[in-house]
Design a protein that fits this description.
The chain is an all-alpha fold. 42% of the residues lie in helices and 0% in strands.
Length: 45
Amino acid sequence: AATVEELLARGITPPIFMAENVDGGGEFNKKILSENKNRIFYLKD
C-alpha cells in the first residue's frame, strides 16, 4: 500500500487491477488489459 501511495503522490497511476464493484473499476481494468495486452495473459470464460 505504501508503494501505491508513493506512486500516486508522484502523479503516477500504478497498473494494479481494481475491484469491479468500485466506481470505475471495470473500465480501469479494461484499460490496463488493453495497454498491456502483449504482457498479460488470462483465460476468459
